[in-house]
């Protein structure tokens, strides 16, 4: 039975997640993590995506992306295909790196966006990898909180969403969300 096509829309914001096959690690070291971030940068620039947030965990990844065109599937296919080929070549492996296709949930409203941004930032804390979200090096949280984002990370866009719906200082709003 064919799988149901994803609902892709221009200007959609999505929480994208993927896990390692059999829950195995998809990052074995910092070289792997840096390579994945370079691949995100490439797809963001090539597809004109806005990467609002990310978190790389040992065996899974979370992305919060806005797609000006309805091309999430094309970009994710390239991102995970290119990364898996590189990972397998580097570690002399064969076969699937990711467990099935990625998951994606379209963000429908501000409350869901806030909840998702906080969930992504707090994921390493919940997993016991660190005490505070800013302690996790492989997340966009510290770059967003400290206004020190790389050019490909649309941290300001995430903060605009927070400010637009709730008013006030967006950095304070973001801090409040991630401290809960």
What labels describe this entry?
180 residues, alpha+beta, 45% helix
The largest pleated sheet is described as: 4 strands, antiparallel
Shape: globular
Q: Number of helical runs? A: 6
**Helix and strand succession?**
EHEEHEHHHH
Distance between the termini: 42 Å
How are the strands of the biggest sheet laid out side by side?
2-3-1-4
Low-confidence stretches: none
- The tally of strands reads 4
Strand content: 15-25%
SS-based class:
alpha+beta
| Overall pLDDT confidence | 93
Task: Tell me the radius of gyration.
Answer: 16 Å
Helix content: 40-55%
Which secondary structure elements does this structure contain, and how are they paired or packed?
Blueprint: E1 12-19, H1 30-47, E2 50-56, E3 60-67, H2 72-90, E4 103-106, H3 110-126, H4 141-145, H5 155-166, H6 170-179
Antiparallel strand pairs: 1-3, 1-4, 2-3
How would you characterize the overall build of this protein?
This protein has 180 residues and is an alpha+beta fold. Helix content is 45%, strand content 15%. The chain has six helices and four strands. The protein has helices at 30-47, 72-90, 110-126, 141-145, 155-166, 170-179, and strands spanning 12-19, 50-56, 60-67, 103-106. It has a four-stranded antiparallel β-sheet with strand order 2-3-1-4, sandwiched between helices. Strand 2 and strand 3 form a beta hairpin. Helix 3 (110-126) crosses helix 6 and helix 5 (155-166) crosses helix 6 (170-179). The chain is globular, with a radius of gyration of 16 Å. The mean pLDDT is 93.
